[in-house]
Amino acid sequence: MSNYALKVNTNWLKRKRDSLIKRMGKAKPFVAGSVVTVNKKCGNKNCKCAKSDYRHKTFYLMYKEKGITKGVYIPVDMVEEVRTWSEEWKAVKELVKEITAIQKAIIKQHVTERRQKKGRK
């Protein structure tokens, strides 16, 4: 069930929805996924990671595609930028959830209003 009560005016719901859609239009660049840190060996036999427990930090953007988790390597100089994109995606996703809840409430409210006009409960 949505957070929006059915007794709320349909026009108010539509105004709220429209304001959220405008906020989406102001969204910055985003990317679906999360930035993760992976510690791994580099493969160079002369590196200290080959001879000890030391591991290099590498960064990946992890995402799901058709239910399968996939990753994209992130160069070190892009990590902060990609983190910002990932955080923006989370905000956009929340807006989409809220807009969806409002749309469902509008549908339910429409049915309720139509029944009231016909004299049914």
Please give the share of residues in helix.
40-55%
Binned strand content: 15-25%
Total number of strands? 3
Strands of the biggest beta sheet: in what spatial order? 1-2-3
Structural class: alpha+beta
Order of helices and strands: HEHEEH
Q: Gyration radius, to the nearest Å? A: 24 Å
Largest sheet: 3 strands, antiparallel
Low-confidence spans: none
Number of helices: 3
Structure described in brief:
This protein is of the alpha+beta class and 121 residues long. Helix content is 49%, strand content 20%.
What labels describe this entry?
alpha+beta, 3 strands, elongated, 121 residues, 3 helices
Secondary structure layout:
Blueprint: H1 10-25, E1 34-40, H2 48-51, E2 56-65, E3 68-74, H3 79-117
Antiparallel strand pairs: 1-2, 2-3
Helix pairs in contact: 1-3
How would you describe this structure to a colleague?
With 121 residues, the chain is of the alpha+beta class. The protein has one domain. Helices cover 49% and strands 20% of the residues. The protein has three helices and three strands, in the order αβαββα. The protein has helices spanning 10-25, 48-51, 79-117, and strands at 34-40, 56-65, 68-74. A three-stranded antiparallel beta sheet has the order 1-2-3. A hairpin with a 2-residue loop joins β2 (56-65) and β3 (68-74). α1 packs antiparallel against α3 (79-117). It is elongated and about 85 Å long. The model has no long low-confidence stretch (mean pLDDT 85).
